[in-house]
Amino acid sequence: VGVDPKSYEERLKESWIWSDLKKVRNVRPSFHNPLGLYGGVAYSGFTLLLGGKEPWTFSHGGNKPHKLIEYPKPDGEISFDLLTSVGLTGTNHEGDQPPHLTLLDDTVPVKRNLTVFDGPEQRFCPAGVYEYVPLEEGPGLRLQINAQNCIHCKTCDIKDPSQNINWVVPEGGGGPAYNGM
Fold first, then answer.
1. The whole model's pTM is what?
2. CA nearest neighbour of 165 among 112, 94, 95
3. Which regions of the chain are under pLDDT 50?
């Protein structure tokens, strides 16, 4: 009949696992303090003495800034540009076939994915099918789907954080033709 997550959480809280986790809830976050390793070790010992009965719970801290990865440009021998790689797949789509990539809600990519996650569609697709382009009129961006580049890996259907992209099997005979494999 299905799984009820609410009953799972209640059962977890009633189990011995919950009491064990509560005892050590502050150990890992205690290392994120000005005293570093020594402060964390001292607090961990203190926690063992109290048995986890302290009335507070530490935070694990916020997100830390990260450095963007700078990838080298394709050299044409070992690494290739996106369009060359898509061309090597031999992907073929008939021009009059119905779209096999659709959005459940056209507003989600800009309102949620671009705003909250910085538009992951433009990065997780290995064939560059999704890109944010400027609106024809006025400021802002819109999601453009270049379905002719799709290599049918189904990554978009799996990795879209909003589960808004619907990938369906294209008409027969279309898609990649990896010759020589």
1. 0.57
2. 112
3. none
